[in-house]
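Friendly challenge for the regulars: who can give me the structure tokens for this chain first? No prize, just bragging rights.
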Amino acid sequence: MQSRFRSDRGLTARMGVTLFLLGLLYVVFVGALIVLLKSWVLVVVVAAGFLGAQYWFSDRLALFAMRGRVVEREEYPELHGVVDRLSALADMPKPVVAVSDLDMPNAFATGRNPDHAVVCVTTGLLRRLEPHELEGVLAHELSHVAHKDVAVITVASFLGVIAGLIVRFAFYSQLFGGGRRDQNTAVVFATVMGVSAAVYAISFLLIRALSRYRELAADRAAALLTGRPSALASALTKVSGDIARIPTKDLRTAQAFNAFYFTPALGREPGFSRLFSTHPSLEQRLDQLGRISAELGEAAAP
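First reply, four minutes later:
Bragging rights claimed.
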């Protein structure tokens, strides 16, 4: 079913290209592991198991990792009311509503399709935003579900996760720490680690390029659906400023999920790090919303 969120051909094309390139990389990666480890059954079964688990249980895993819990209407009537209105306006199924008891102001959407989706907000976000600002943030998250880029990011991140785990396993288990291993075994493990590191680096860059674009696409779709780009701009400014003031140690556990967040769980970023960021800069997002506001003839302030 097509929602009323405006479709984005640029996003669709980028998702297709990213999945195609990562699919090729995945085939090469699995093939290399089979040749090096000489056990295709083990490699295929483990890879398929991880991919299936990430696709089918991504919503539960994300909620568990971020301490989110599903909440009923009686507990958060205003939050449910906003999600109800936006779902009806967008003509899409209402997602499961969840809340994470974190002071960090943020939100994310996850799930494999619009019929199996979750939208989660933190208590820090609910405490800081006005109703019209919260509506803008939730419209942004719902657009991720409608565009299906949540599922694409989930699947796309799988390869990098596996490659990263292999690299970490090789490092922390001290495979090259001087134990009794023959030279052939050392060469095999060194090659596996090298291939895994290369795969992780390539998938890392591909996913971040897609992630930055999908955030701009979600901002556009949310602003056009609600007709209030200034509300979303206000929420972005407020949330980004408050996250920058949260101690870094409190953000570290959340940074692994930056690709899913409304804004990244980071303080002020130097210009160089933006090349590797999951999100476009705040200036880019506000500039785009300002242009949309002018096109709609909306006042600069909500």
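Strands lie at 68-70, 96-100, 107-113, 116-122. The mean pLDDT is 81. Your move, everyone else.
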